[in-house]
Each structure stands twice: as structure tokens, then as C-alpha cells.
């Protein structure tokens, strides 16, 4: 198959975790040094720490959800191989919204192949259109991160259209 790329540092997880550790260290140093912590400063530290814990938990949950979705890809493939292709299509459709770009495109190809085996020509054309629009969408997503509000709105519109088209794929 393909070689696994070494996983990079997840800054969206590392930054809030590092800030949370820094916040705890600063708080401990202030208490040990005998600094009188005002009520305002205490509530500021508390709210900031709650926010950072939320961010860390959200990132961990997202990573867990992606890992679970990647594991389910093989389950759906075994369903397709065991003579239940439409059940596999249902699973793949539900996974598409949780997968990163590389796995997303692989699943679209598997769906296209399964639809071809079932002689569902219209569904094959739909998947091809979704694949082409997805490539455009991923390019748009890269530019939307540093783009104008209009670029971000266009990206959201494209995401909604893709979601609608994926949901419209036949399951029977």
C-alpha cells in the first residue's frame, strides 16, 4: 500500500496545552512567592484555564473521531467484499464528514468502484462530480484560512453544497 507519512506536530493541540501548563506554573509561583491574588486575578486565571481545558479536550476529541473513522473504513470495505455493498456505501457516506483529505479522497474512489460494480451509472457520475468539487474545495479551504471574509463565506457555501451532494448519494 502507501507508506505512512510521519505525523507532524499538532499545533492546535500543543499551543493550548502549553499555555495551560504555563498558566498553572505562573499560578503556583505566585502562590509560593506569597503574592496576594486578587479576586479579579483568580477569576481571570480560572476562566482562562477553563477555556484552555476546553480547547485541549476539543482537539483530543477531534483526533479520536478521525482515528475511529479511519478504522471504520476497513469495516466498510469488508462489508463490500462480503456481498453487502450498499451497507458499505452507508458507512462510507457517514465517514466522509470525519476524514482528513487523503482518506476522504480514497473513500470516494472506493464508493465510485462499488457503484460501478452495482451498475449504478448515475451514482458513479455523482461521485465523480463530488470528487472534482472536493479537490476545488480543499484548495479553497487553504486560501480561506488566510483569506478575506468573502473567501470564508464562499468556502462555507461550497462546504454546504458538498455536504448536500454527499447526503444525496443513493444508498439502495
Give a brief rundown of this model.
Helix content is 79%, strand content 0%. It is an all-alpha fold.
Descriptive account of the structure:
- The chain is mainly alpha-helical and 172 residues long.
- It has helices at residues 11-32, 39-81, 85-95, 101-117, 121-144, 149-167.
- The radius of gyration is 22 Å and the shape is elongated.
Taken as a percent bin, the fraction of beta residues is: under 5%
Helix and strand sequence: HHHHHH
**Distinct helical segment count:** 6
Low-confidence stretches: none
Helix content: over 70%
Summarize the SSE layout with pairings.
Elements: H1 11-32, H2 39-81, H3 85-95, H4 101-117, H5 121-144, H6 149-167
Question: What keyword list fits this structure?
Answer:
single chain; 172 residues; mainly alpha; 79% helix
Amino acid at each position: 500500500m502507501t507508506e505512512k507519512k510521519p505525523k507532524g506536530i499538532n499545533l492546535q493541540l500543543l499551543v493550548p496545552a502549553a499555555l495551560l501548563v504555563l498558566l498553572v506554573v505562573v499560578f503556583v509561583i505566585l502562590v509560593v512567592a506569597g503574592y496576594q491574588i486578587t479576586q479579579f486575578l483568580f477569576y481571570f486565571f480560572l476562566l482562562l484555564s477553563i477555556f484552555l481545558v476546553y480547547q485541549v479536550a476539543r482537539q483530543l476529541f477531534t483526533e479520536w473521531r478521525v482515528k475511529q473513522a479511519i478504522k471504520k473504513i476497513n469495516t466498510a470495505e469488508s462489508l463490500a467484499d462480503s456481498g453487502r455493498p450498499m451497507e458499505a456505501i452507508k458507512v462510507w457516506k457517514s465517514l466522509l464528514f470525519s476524514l482528513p483529505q487523503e482518506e476522504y479522497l480514497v473513500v470516494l474512489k472506493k464508493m465510485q468502484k462499488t457503484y460501478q460494480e452495482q451498475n449504478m451509472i448515475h451514482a458513479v457520475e455523482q461521485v465523480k462530480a463530488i470528487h472534482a468539487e472536493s479537490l476545488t474545495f480543499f484548495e479553497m479551504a487553504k486560501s480561506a484560512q488566510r483569506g478575506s471574509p468573502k473567501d470564508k463565506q464562499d468556502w462555507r457555501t461550497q462546504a454546504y453544497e458538498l455536504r448536500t451532494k454527499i447526503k444525496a448519494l443513493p444508498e439502495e
